[in-house]
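hi! just following up on the protien thing from before. the input was this:
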Amino acid sequence: MDSENGKSSESSDGLEVPEWEIGDWWLYTFSTPDYSDDTAKLVVASTSEEDGTAYMLAISSITEARRHAVLNHNPFLGRITHSELGTFENGVAQPVLSFPLQDGREWSFTLFSIEWQATVSDISGETAIIMASSSDGSRLDYVFNHERGFFSSFIWKDGTGLEQLRMMLSDSGTGHSGDVYFVRGGDLFSDIWEDTGTDAELRDTFLVNDHPTDGEWDEMIYFLDAESGTGSSITMTLRDHMSVSVLERFWGPGASEMGTLGTIPYPSGEYTFTATFTGGSTYLRVRIAGGITESWGL
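and the predicted 3d structure came back as:
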């Protein structure tokens, strides 16, 4: 990072883009309305992506990397451009930041499939405060701290004012050592069932194709929440195209299982998902994604 290399971060032209080095890291807490909070250590794994124009930002834990791949709530993973610290969405680099950061500077970008108009509302020393708005009333409020080299906070609220993402920096540093991971995810299946009635059986199928550009998935990653009320039960089964059961769960009266993360090896072909509910008070949420894992030893 510039300040640690003895370079001036602020000039008459505003805050300049910092230079990341392999092993630089940031510890963030991620909060969303639908899932429990999680903490992830983001680490610079490479500085030579995209023909030497981008970094690779990975995670220090394979479990957290899988969690972020299946929940898909962290936009700041994978390739990050050198020039703007821009994140990629649908293969296109998006300038969530626009350097040099100057008071009153305006620009536009797309994130979460929403078009944003951003403005630097204040510059104070090493810190830039940025606000971005969209046509539907959604809002981003984020703070870039040049001394830390990345965001100290990033908050997304939808048009109703509901907070969809809160990303808060807990700590940062340099020289991380050990293995780091990036899991390239792709949504395959997602649904929620709540109070489905006294007796119900639900069945769905989905087809697992390869990643559109990177070939076969290494694995499927699942995330599930389940809660069965008194006098209720839930039975869940996932079968492959050979009718082999690859995932089974049963929750009896009063049982619950929240935030479970797991993997299914060698996905291919058509899968059939079946859930049976008895009793009136039940809740089941299932998300399944394909995952391709990259790792680096630092």
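Confidence is low (pLDDT under 50) at residues 2-11.
The longest strand covers residues 179-194.
cheers
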